[in-house]
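Hey all, quick one. A colleague (J.T.) asked me to put the zinc ion job into the tracker so the inputs and the structure tokens live in one place instead of scattered across chat threads. No bug as far as I know, just bookkeeping. Sequence used:
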Amino acid sequence: MTLAATIRRQIAEDWHERSDRDFANPGSALRAAGKGNPRNLPCPTCKEPNKLTPKDKRLGYQCDTCARQDEGGGY
Ligand SMILES: [Zn+2]
């Protein structure tokens, strides 16, 4: 393998790790709840309480259940 390819792979792996870490669950678009980002807001679609964090809301997300239904059954 060439050096360039090695570096490219390393960058891709780093990016993948970073991008995964902040999500609440694997396969979920929702942000992980945490300090300053409590999961205390209702889903705008099904009105279930405590489904979204302020960050989710700002990004226009809905809860996993509704998101899956939107995607037509998911996996
Ligand atoms: Zn919902």
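Adding what we noticed when we looked at it: Helices lie at 3-21, 54-58, 64-70. The mean pLDDT is 81.
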